[in-house]
Amino acid sequence: SRILQTSLDDYTQALQLTRDRYEGKIASALDLTRAQSQLAEARAQLDDVNAQRDLSEHAIAELVGAMPGDVHLAQNAQPLKLPGIPHTLPGSLLQQRPDVAAAERRVFAANANIGVAKAAWYPDFSLTGLLGGQTQGSGNLLAAASRYWALGPLVNLPIFDGGRRSANERQAKAEFEEAAAHYHSQVLKAVCEVEDNLGQLRDLQRESEDQHAAVDAAQSAEQMAMSSYQAGAASYLDVVTAQTAALQAQRRLQVVETSRLQASVGLMAALGGGWKSG
Fold first, then answer.
1. Cα 216–chain centre separation
2. What does the alpha-carbon distance between residue 240 and residue 17 come to, in Å, rounded to a whole number?
3. CA neighbours closer than 13 Å in the CB half-sphere of residue 83
4. Domain segments of the chain as ranges
């Protein structure tokens, strides 16, 4: 609504300017009608945004057990800032995920004497290699995870070395293999989700930079169109076109920034709660 309110203020000033020019026999009736239509359309869009905000407030109130009128969203809140992501994150962060942690516990419960160092299950590797200048191709992270978490031939584990295995040992081996395979699957799923969100953040960062440039260019064009109109060198149609383009560019930027926030939240969820371990 902040963007629409700013545009509404600009359109109001433009309408007043056009009305003055019309009364001075400088602007045409068509220019005046266009200015009036543009302002009315902006008001309608703002009304729609306010209606959607009311619905969101009521939904939030229901979730937190409050009355509908007790929750209010700021109408002109400042844009949220994305949290900084460290360049390198330890793979042990994935242990924060309930599904991975539960699968790991099942592995160790299946055979407490497996003799595998716990640290080896969570080696450090760069989860953020997809960002910045160290962009990697799709699937590299998954390939790395496959190497890190590949269990290999389970018959080589110490518990199964040498001697005749009893029925209990064979059952223990089968239970461990099942638990380990499930764990392996959960870790790969977690890594895939991390990679998906990192990839989104990388792509959306570039899109945000491009869209910021588009907004700057559109706003410059808007100012030039208004100056030309005031000098009598352009029609109000030029002003309307430039203002519409500027508004669309700003709203598109808002969509991109919202997507970046959503991807950041998705990354936190994929890591099981963020990247501050310990």
1. 23
2. 13
3. 12
4. 1-78, 88-278
Distance CA 253, CA 210 (A): 9
| DSSP tally for the chain: helices H, then strands E | 6, 0
Q: What is the pTM of this model?
A: 0.68
Q: Return contacts of 152-156, CB within 8 angstroms, 24+ apart.
A: 154/180
Tell me the C-alpha distance between 78 and 64, whole Å.
24
Contact 214, 241 (CB under 8 A): no
CA–CA distances in Å: residue 150 to residues 95, 137, 146, 178, 180 = 17, 21, 5, 14, 10
Please name the residues in contact with 199: beta carbons below 8 A apart, sequence gap of 6 or more. Answer: 130, 138
Please answer whether residues 275 and 94 qualify as being in contact, where contact means their C-beta atoms are separated by less than 8 angstroms.
no
Read off the tokens for 249: 């560019």
- Cα separation, 45 vs 43, whole angstroms: 5
> pLDDT tens digits, the chain, 278 residues: what are they?
678 888 888 899 899 989 998 898 888 899 899 999 999 998 998 888 888 888 888 888 888 888 878 888 776 666 777 777 777 777 778 888 899 889 888 888 776 644 443 434 444 444 444 344 444 444 444 455 554 444 443 444 444 444 444 566 667 777 788 888 898 888 889 888 888 888 899 999 999 999 999 999 999 999 999 999 988 888 889 999 999 999 999 999 999 999 999 999 898 888 888 776 44
Spatial CB neighbours of 3, under 8 Å, sequence gap ≥ 6: 247, 250, 251, 254
Q: Which of 41, 38, 40, 34 is nearest to 237 (CA)?
A: 34
Which one of 3.40.50.1110, 3.40.640.10, 1.20.1600.10, 3.30.1220.10 gives the CATH number of domain 88-278? Answer: 1.20.1600.10
